[in-house]
Write a structure and sequence with these properties.
Elements (H helix, E strand, L loop, with lengths): L2 E14 L3 E8 L3 E7 L18 E7 L5 E10 L8 H17 L7 H13 L5 H15 L20 E5 L4 E3 L10 E4 H12 L12 H19 L4 H11 L27
Parallel strand pairs: 3-5
Antiparallel strand pairs: 1-2, 1-4, 2-3, 4-5, 6-7, 6-8
């Protein structure tokens, strides 16, 4: 079919030429789609609102050999809260980048689409890195990469102690006998227990969970290491967020008064290698 409709989230946006944008969409019907929005950077473009980064829109696309061309873009939800606060901008960017590197073009996944859409809504009222971590664990579970926690995936032994080794190459927590040959990161027992909670908690009750700054740093850095090892791609936006968390930058108080046209400052190039 040359022309088709798609309900989709804009998960990546790059400038192209003088007035166009290359968009990566994640659609309900067809999964990830690479598309071009011609003339969308012009002030009077009718597609402008529906093609903004993080928007949830209805698209009319023309199927091309390498790229789809966006003929119409009608916004359903623009998620302004993802642009008014730096914490939420970074978390949404991290979610979008992970979704991009973890999926291939035109492979539908309704469960993953629904999870991403729900997480963008959840970011309005829930602590952003908590949403980012819960999203990551659910994405890994949906795609069949859920890390094994508390049991060594190499030998099957139960793992105990205050500090536990977490390895992406092994696929989870590794015992002392198997650790010598695996790359990874040390996590506290409290962080491991919290990861289990994040994996199983209903998203509607996510805001009831509490973690301290040490656990937050350990879990975010551990999940970044695991995802980069699993998908063999770097997560550039994650590194940015981890650095700010580690420096204690007080992201919750930083307000980012950026219009939707200021997408380049955080997200342009995220996920590129």
């Amino acid at each position: 079919m040359a022309v088709f409709h798609a309900d989709a989230l804009v998960i990546r946006s790059r400038e192209y030429g003088e007035s166009d944008r290359l968009l990566t969409l994640f659609s309900r019907e067809k999964g990830k789609l690479q598309s071009i929005a011609k003339g969308v950077r012009k002030p009077k473009s009718r597609q402008r609102a529906g093609s903004q980064l993080f928007s949830y829109s209805e698209f009319l696309l023309h199927h091309g050999r390498n790229l789809n061309t966006i003929n119409q873009a009608s916004s359903k939800e623009s998620f302004p809260h993802l642009w008014n606060d730096l914490d939420r901008t970074l978390a949404a960017t991290a979610i979008a980048e992970l979704l991009d590197i973890a999926t291939i073009v035109e492979q539908s996944n309704l469960e993953l689409f629904t999870l991403t859409l729900a997480s963008f809504f959840l970011l309005e009222h829930t602590e952003p890195t908590l949403v980012q971590s819960a999203y990551t664990l659910r994405l890994l579970n949906i795609l069949g990469y859920r890390p094994k926690m508390g049991q060594c995936p190499l030998c099957g032994s139960l793992i105990k102690g205050d500090r536990i080794y977490f390895s992406p190459e092994a696929g989870g927590t590794v015992c002392g006998q198997c650790r010598s040959s695996e790359r990874g990161r040390w996590l506290s027992a409290g962080s491991i227990a919290f990861i289990r909670q994040l994996t199983d908690v209903d998203l509607s009750k996510l805001d009831r969970l509490r973690w301290n700054s040490r656990m937050q740093t350990e879990i975010i850095e551990g999940l970044q290491l695991y995802c980069e090892g699993t998908f063999d791609r770097s997560l550039r936006s994650w590194s940015m967020g981890s650095k700010l968390i580690g420096e204690g930058a007080g992201l919750q108080t930083v307000q980012r008064k950026a219009g939707h046209d200021d997408e380049r400052s955080v997200v342009d190039g995220a996920g590129e290698n």
